[in-house]
What we know:
heterodimer, A: 6-stranded antiparallel sheet, 21 helices, B: 5-stranded mixed barrel, 7 strands, 37% helix, elongated
Amino acid sequence: xxxxxxxxxxxxxxxxxxxxxxxxxxxxxxxxxxxxxxxxxxxxxxxxxxxxxxxxxxxxxxxxxxxxxxxxxxxxxxxxxxxxxxxxxxxxxxxxxxxxxxxxxxxxxxxxxxxxxxxxxxxxxxxxxxxxxxxxxxxxxxxxxxxxxxxxxxxxxxxxxxxxxxxxxxxxxxxxxxxxxxxxxxxxxxxxxxxxxxxxxxxxxxxxxxxxxxxxxxxxxxxxxxxxxxxxxxxxxxxxxxxxxxxxxxxxxxxxxxxxxxxxxxxxxxxxxxxxxxxxxxxxxxxxxxxxxxxxxxxxxxxxxxxxxxxxxxxxxxxxxxxxxxxxxxxxxxxxxxxxxxxxxxxxxxxxxxxxxxxxxxxxxxxxxxxxxxxxxxxxxxxxxxxxxxxxxxxxxxxxxxxxxxxxxxxxxxxxxxxxxxxxxxxxxxxxxxxxxxxxxxxxxxxxxxxxxxxxxxxxxxxxxxxxxxxxxxxxxxxxxxxxxxxxxxxxxxxxxxxxxxxxxxxxxxxxxxxxxxxxxxxxxxxxxxxxxxxxxxxxxxxxxxxxxxxxxxxxxxxxxxxxxxxxxxxxxxxxxxxxxxxxxxxxxxxxxxxxxxxxxxxxxxxxxxxxxxxxxxxxxxxxxxxxxxxxxxxxxxxxxxxxxxxxxxx
Amino acid sequence: xxxxxxxxxxxxxxxxxxxxxxxxxxxxxxxxxxxxxxxxxxxxxxxxxxxxxxxxxxxxxxxxxxxxxxxxxxxxxxxxxxxxxxxxxxxxxxxxxxxxxxxxxxxxxxxxxxxxxxxxxxxxxxxxxxxxxxxxxxxxxxxxxxxxxxxxxxxxxxxxx
Lengths: 651, 161
């Protein structure tokens, strides 16, 4: 009974989203206030019904209702309750339900928070979001309803959740990632509304910016968590694979980063308007492309996709409609949206343009590398794979160039900076950065690999620019510290976000250059030395868990002859599916991670063991956390709330 | 030309130039870094280049896995049920590596026709068959789904034993 209620709510949500897509839009076109006023109630009830749908599916999982095909395929009565609930998004159908649920959550948030918006803008934005809803709710219902029943031969036990996904990382990673992905639909809706009305003023960018920054923050933390999860759960200590699934979320992030910067120019200077609109369209299109890549099965094989094209084709059509429709609208209407002012070559605008161009190029590189094998395969020209060397060869130089320009851009003024002043400010920090960077690289490791040293120099370069800029903000004030604390939140967000980039850069550079790794056969009593660390294998013994059995090894680690840690990597056999899992043991530290994992048992009590020393590993993700904090912080900046307080004082 | 237009022209040129370099670099890097897939049959027919980074895949032949006593060196054979190729790998094999499982190996062929693998991939789902392997099997007349092929698979594995 409950699953049917879920299905009906989903159908009702589809009907509501169809109304939302049409009624307010027609109202906005005719200037009919009555029709436009439908937007908010429709948006809120859309959220309500999708919430009911989610709760019903959650209930089916919690009560082990294996008559529901999706529950039978992705759960098991032996699973702990939190894994049962997170199994809602453990498979294709539930992931899609989560996708549309989060979409409705964003729609709800826009409906609640849109008090200050002009009526027609609010109606158009919600209407466009409603259209996206129609596309994806119908997709869920028609091709992949999670509520489908297996009434005739109900299995007694579920097939279990994939053991890889039985992890805290899976509980939080997909919802956060989707919050980001789907959140860009709001920026997209604002862009389409601006094109439809032909109005793009400062107010528009002030409404759009917080939404975009918050989605960007969610996507940032989603990607960061994904990397962290892959690191400890896939078992072998890799943290970025340039896998198509990772690229699917990384492309919207790169484009979204460009959008965040371009929106800043649009808000502050009324420039780059049509470019901002284009970026908003591209960012959301890449989110849809990501959904297509991950959800259509096209990655497993282009041919299996062609054999069972229903799912993939549906998203492909949605993608084509979105990209085609919005670009057509852009072509017709973008001319109405004119930029208001001009800027000098030596100005922050130029540097932000450089940022945008570089980010778009980097995104295109990832796009080419991701789609190329699919295109070749689709044309039957052979099976190729594009590996990490391609991505590294292109991505690393471009990101270093990007960071170099970041150091300049932070210091330049809007509209016009004097080149002399720029050189005067930059020269000392350049010299200092080179000295500090080389010194740091030398202290860390006297090999001084070129790329790592360059990355450290550039990190100091950006840090000095950040410090110089903060100082120049208060240099003419009396009480410097207190005026520093009075700087707006968005300024601090800018500082924190760029600091986050530096932290990640340091982490990536050092861990990629100086990691040490040994795969080795060890019998109990064997020792291996890796850098300053000595590993002693004490043997492995049997282990029994709630839904698995396996072996647990003991490895004692000494650092500089002193006891450092005792580590217990595991090898598990999950009984329901009979699948083997490697549970690595990681000793995480601020400056280095020690990573041990068991391979397979060999003869005479020996094991294949992987030992890894990964310097500055945590920094990669900590930078992502800083960027997320910064993205969220901007949304709380005072100037985005002014509208509301003004209204309340007049009321 | 007004100064404003001139500036715009400079910007546009800058963008076009940058994009052209970027695309050029991308295509160059792409050509350097793709690795082609070859089935055992193609390798035995001499279609695969020697000492070039390629991928090879197939089912691990039953009873072919030999481990060294004092290192992680492993030798095994992969087959598409038409031909088989010997693979040598030193390192930790993936959790799902076992005899009869479909795998893809990354590495290069040496002059003796032995595949020196640097990486062995078996996906984390025992029902999953690497798409290249499935395709190669299909081409050599074995399909992974219907019953008929099951028997022909038995026949072919039998032939090797």
